[in-house]
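Now for today's protein:

——
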Amino acid sequence: MAQAKLMLDYVYEHEINHADQIFLTQPTGGGQVVDYTWKQTLDQARRMAAHLKAQNLEPGSRVAILSKNCAHFIMAELAIWMAGCTTVAIFPTETADTVRYVLEHSEASLLFVGKLDTFDQQQPGIPAGMPIIAFPLAPKNSYEAWDAVTARTKPLTGKPARGGKDIAILMYTSGSTGQPKGVMHSFERITAAAEGINNDTQARIGTNTRNRMLSYLPLAHVFERAWVESASLVNGNTQLFFAESLDTFIQDLNRAKPVTFISVPRLWLKFQQGVFAKMPPKKLDRLLSIPILGKIVGRKVLKGLGLDHALLAGSGSAPIPAELIAWYRRLGLNLIEGYAMTEDFAYSHNSTDKINAPGCVGVPLKGVEVRISEEGEVLIKSPGQFVGYYKRPDLDAEVFTEDGFFRTGDKGERRADGLLKLTGRVKELFKTSKGKYVAPAPIENRLNACPRIETSMVSGVGQPSAYAIVVLAETVRPQVKADPAFKAEVHAELEQLLDSVNAELADYEKLQMLVVAPEPWSIENGMLTPTMKIKRARIESAVEPQLANWYSGKDKVRWA
């Protein structure tokens, strides 16, 4: 019986069959880029792999990467695998304390440092004496340079193989609810997931279509690692572009002209708000309603976003308002919502052309089994299922059922056509003083559909009723500060929003008030995870001193 192909087997095939085809396109500043073919990519990876092997690291040794997305991240991962080691990627926005925790918990033997914005603050988290190699785009440093190592090192030859059960990746979750956990993924399972993702994508864009993707969501997160990097390593006929900076993002998108583009709900909302800043929603809605002209306008809007070539667009990582999906589809963008998590290597559910509905996260991908527990929890068994939590067998026992299904922590319902609808988080449910449980996610989705709002959080643990904190849209915040009349207008709109949302809720779910956050939540101020999910406990802790005052008042909308 022939042994199943693993990730590196695909890579070695591309090295031969697509040797001169561009695989990676890296911006280097000022609009300049460097292209790397498959042959060049593997030459760099083989040289670094030879260097790693010369360090006499134990098989399976953890080698860490602290870097924003770049071509050398991919090269380093391939080198780590070929050298017989396991990759540990750290979010490029993590604090020094988290950097230290991950490096020490994983017992990393070596660290690659790459493109970073706050390395001065992160550097103290690196243990003294740790061997470090710097990517070409790393901040100024005194570490050994990647180019110097590869220039003096002969490439590793042959086709170094890994076992299917070898751990390829130790992926630390973003820690939105506590200390990050190390999720272990084996070669056989990440390959199975990547094959499934590639097959799903090819079925939608055409098997002969050369895919182009912009890699900008953190590669330390499973969504980007699976759907962008791993799928492209299996496919071979993909060109990966990288973003230069936040300021050049739209230019980066227009350079890449992605055929497939994935993002998270917060960014899809920001794109929409950017469009509304140039054209009022009512005017755009009117233009889109006009036959023929509507299609032209929609395509012009997508071109302005750099998405006019996109055959497939996906949203994941967090719930997205159904109205937002409908808006993009009206522009002509095939935006679909999927559902997965770190523990199944982002291989779980996706919508199809025939079976989809805004507000639902899709049907099971090939090979995925799903059922709903008696408590309403979604249970998943995926080909990409993780091996376990690193050094935490106690957690493994908690999260798996006796027959091997993973307890997702999400509550959901399955429709007759197989579509899964998420209704909240098992652990995010909170009880008011009236003894009733409230699921925040569905209420937040209703609030987030408002163009004036960037994001929101519903809470009210132990309070007589729930409340919501809202962050105003980026384009709205400066106008509110500068113009009292505009602030009054927004205030009135928020009151109307509160009334309309409450009209759709059960009595025990109704919100007593909307509180406008004084500043936006961000990764930097600790209110968002690196993938822009809200950190509920952190936000609740920050506003706790003000709760008594908020609840004692009668205002529907309060400005914190």
Observations:
- The domain at 344-350+362-424 is CATH 2.30.38.10 (Luciferase; domain 3).
- The longest helix spans residues 484-503.
- The chain has 19 helices and 27 strands.
